[in-house]
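Hello,

Our lab assistant flagged a job as stuck in the queue for most of the afternoon. It eventually completed. Since we weren't sure the result was trustworthy after the delay, we are filing this so someone can double-check. Below is the sequence as submitted and the structure that was eventually returned. Let us know if re-running is recommended.
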Amino acid sequence: MLNESQERHVTATLRVTEEELLALRRHVAGAGPRQTLFAVENDVSADDRMRVTQKIDDALALIEQTKTRLSLGRVTQSLRHLLIATVTLMVVDLADTKADGLRVYGPPDPDVWTTLDPMIDDIVTTLDAIVTLMRGA
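-- returned structure --
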């Protein structure tokens, strides 16, 4: 029914939708990840959370039905490759948060070079250790 390119597109879109729905389900259940810079405030009643969870489950079931009906394969990815790719992108994004990268948003305060940059470097060094570990193992 679908050509190879169409199948890849549909599979990728459904995969991302499934991931986002599962993340939303965790937030609705109050089991979202604890983060330093982001929090989800529960301002939804228990009844509405239950109804939303049911709708999320319905959507996930429809994704499964679509996969089955269109004979879509399951994409399998190596955890090692996922870690390397994801962390590498994080490192690239973090480089843009250093003083030089912040110039596009206006002239950075002189203290940014001595305050923010070393902290970003520490995060990058820690993340680079993950990549090194995964490449060396």
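-- support follow-up --
The delay was a queue issue, not a problem with the job. The result is valid. The mean pLDDT is 93. Residues 10 and 72 are 9 Å apart (CA to CA).
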